């Protein structure tokens, strides 16, 4: 199964190609892009061991001059020091303004490579080859790039669109189960905020906590529907001046939990899962959606094997304090994405500290 999704933007539109085995043809696809001959592949050691040579061989067979740069795996390395090291390699390889940085990896690699591409020589070409489910359905699409600051996640960044996103579902076979489940958090997110049919398909599936439980048709469906949902939203609001903020559902509290646990306790999708549970409970308290719908969401998250509670050692007060450093704060008010129904959410900045405190207190394990 293969599908192509267009991300239609006023400028810099591009396509998402979903194709099992497509990594073998990245050279041919790159040859049809208006890019120069020099490509620097950025990856981490583990992913590069699996897929680096396949990527390089395919590119070289099309006449590209290819080098690579490896970043240690992990959110701890998503910082400006790692960006400086990419710059050093770019300089050593004499990348030019028509050269390309190609991200081969998960969301961390994609975010950093995109930010480096946005800022090196004031912007060079960028191609995404996501290798984790989370990166395939979320991080690789939409042009958000960046790195973390010690005080918060993704506080340093830029909007910078890729020339191409190539998704090869067959690479998921080497993805650890925990990372697969983390990616499913973002899939559930799309079901809640945009695509009721996707949500119901996940509910109907017998098991969704492991790649082994997905047949090819269901996997292709969640990849296509998730990418289409994000393309639809980004196409309406490229730089998050309005509706694009709904893509942050679950992320406000999720980012706070990630940061307060030093990115060592939870992977991103796990923290987002907890954030979605919290946002759902807030929505119920505010009368925006029903207990039944919140229960359906929480059941789906639990069915995926994702966490639904906050660690006991985190304090409600420190979580609330940390929310003030979120990128989505506007005029001193924290903006939350709250569901109204399965498939529909709203942006809200009128949540009282009492409701927030009560919700977080109940969720602490």
UniProtKB/TrEMBL annotation:
<dbReference type="GO" id="GO:0005737">
    <property type="term" value="C:cytoplasm"/>
</dbReference>
<feature type="domain" description="3-dehydroquinate synthase N-terminal">
    <location>
        <begin position="70"/>
        <end position="181"/>
    </location>
</feature>
<keyword id="KW-0520">NAD</keyword>
<dbReference type="InterPro" id="IPR030963">
    <property type="entry name" value="DHQ_synth_fam"/>
</dbReference>
<keyword id="KW-0479">Metal-binding</keyword>
<dbReference type="InterPro" id="IPR056179">
    <property type="entry name" value="DHQS_C"/>
</dbReference>
<keyword id="KW-0057">Aromatic amino acid biosynthesis</keyword>
<dbReference type="InterPro" id="IPR050071">
    <property type="entry name" value="Dehydroquinate_synthase"/>
</dbReference>
<dbReference type="Pfam" id="PF24621">
    <property type="entry name" value="DHQS_C"/>
</dbReference>
<feature type="binding site">
    <location>
        <position position="268"/>
    </location>
    <ligand>
        <name>Zn(2+)</name>
    </ligand>
</feature>
<dbReference type="Pfam" id="PF01761">
    <property type="entry name" value="DHQ_synthase"/>
</dbReference>
<dbReference type="InterPro" id="IPR016037">
    <property type="entry name" value="DHQ_synth_AroB"/>
</dbReference>
<feature type="binding site">
    <location>
        <position position="144"/>
    </location>
    <ligand>
        <name>NAD(+)</name>
    </ligand>
</feature>
<comment type="pathway">
    <text>Metabolic intermediate biosynthesis; chorismate biosynthesis; chorismate from D-erythrose 4-phosphate and phosphoenolpyruvate: step 2/7.</text>
</comment>
<keyword id="KW-0547">Nucleotide-binding</keyword>
<feature type="binding site">
    <location>
        <position position="251"/>
    </location>
    <ligand>
        <name>Zn(2+)</name>
    </ligand>
</feature>
<feature type="domain" description="3-dehydroquinate synthase C-terminal">
    <location>
        <begin position="183"/>
        <end position="329"/>
    </location>
</feature>
<keyword id="KW-0862">Zinc</keyword>
<comment type="similarity">
    <text>Belongs to the sugar phosphate cyclases superfamily. Dehydroquinate synthase family.</text>
</comment>
<comment type="function">
    <text>Catalyzes the conversion of 3-deoxy-D-arabino-heptulosonate 7-phosphate (DAHP) to dehydroquinate (DHQ).</text>
</comment>
<dbReference type="InterPro" id="IPR030960">
    <property type="entry name" value="DHQS/DOIS_N"/>
</dbReference>
<feature type="binding site">
    <location>
        <position position="153"/>
    </location>
    <ligand>
        <name>NAD(+)</name>
    </ligand>
</feature>
<feature type="binding site">
    <location>
        <begin position="107"/>
        <end position="111"/>
    </location>
    <ligand>
        <name>NAD(+)</name>
    </ligand>
</feature>
<feature type="binding site">
    <location>
        <position position="186"/>
    </location>
    <ligand>
        <name>Zn(2+)</name>
    </ligand>
</feature>
<keyword id="KW-0028">Amino-acid biosynthesis</keyword>
<dbReference type="GO" id="GO:0003856">
    <property type="term" value="F:3-dehydroquinate synthase activity"/>
</dbReference>
<protein>
    <recommendedName>
        <fullName>3-dehydroquinate synthase</fullName>
        <ecNumber>4.2.3.4</ecNumber>
    </recommendedName>
</protein>
<dbReference type="GO" id="GO:0000166">
    <property type="term" value="F:nucleotide binding"/>
</dbReference>
<dbReference type="GO" id="GO:0009423">
    <property type="term" value="P:chorismate biosynthetic process"/>
</dbReference>
<keyword id="KW-0170">Cobalt</keyword>
<keyword id="KW-0963">Cytoplasm</keyword>
<dbReference type="GO" id="GO:0009073">
    <property type="term" value="P:aromatic amino acid family biosynthetic process"/>
</dbReference>
<keyword id="KW-0456">Lyase</keyword>
<dbReference type="GO" id="GO:0008652">
    <property type="term" value="P:amino acid biosynthetic process"/>
</dbReference>
<feature type="binding site">
    <location>
        <begin position="131"/>
        <end position="132"/>
    </location>
    <ligand>
        <name>NAD(+)</name>
    </ligand>
</feature>
<dbReference type="GO" id="GO:0046872">
    <property type="term" value="F:metal ion binding"/>
</dbReference>
